């Protein structure tokens, strides 16, 4: 019964509230938010600047990493020996930092890693496990994340991603582009798991980039769209 209640709450918040109502032609959540006329908009990008800490570092010429609070973060080898600005959220678990030039130009996100002597090796890819998720589990997990965010107040870690495009909006947009109806319901559990991995891979993913990738895809399916996104981000790194 407890699992059923959690599943219902997840469906209510992620599917019902995000699906256009046949009578009102609007999403229930949109109608609710429109009624909150007393809410004052806040520029979260300005707010987070007060909490992000910045330190100047030299990228280690031998290991191509930077050290913050006795932790090491892997930096692209092309920045070896460069002086850079390292920005990070002091309230987070510090599993990554953001690398900028001394002129405040963003370079990359540097993940936490274990230094290996002799070479700057790429992180070992995680072992691909057999999918264990289903549609209900994905709904519950996503809803639990939202509840945790509400319980803790402002999630500075999420804000560092500059108010990231919601996963549900990503799914709805892709479904619409592919001519599918139903948002999350338009995809199978396996497809949702694949799309979640694609979404998690690109922190700056937004609607224009997704549409660009879809238009460039030779075949309008998930695999080809994901490939085009990869190409777009590769070009952006050059």
From TrEMBL:
<feature type="domain" description="Transposase-like Mu C-terminal">
    <location>
        <begin position="51"/>
        <end position="107"/>
    </location>
</feature>
<protein>
    <recommendedName>
        <fullName>Transposase-like Mu C-terminal domain-containing protein</fullName>
    </recommendedName>
</protein>
<dbReference type="Pfam" id="PF09299">
    <property type="entry name" value="Mu-transpos_C"/>
</dbReference>
<dbReference type="InterPro" id="IPR015378">
    <property type="entry name" value="Transposase-like_Mu_C"/>
</dbReference>
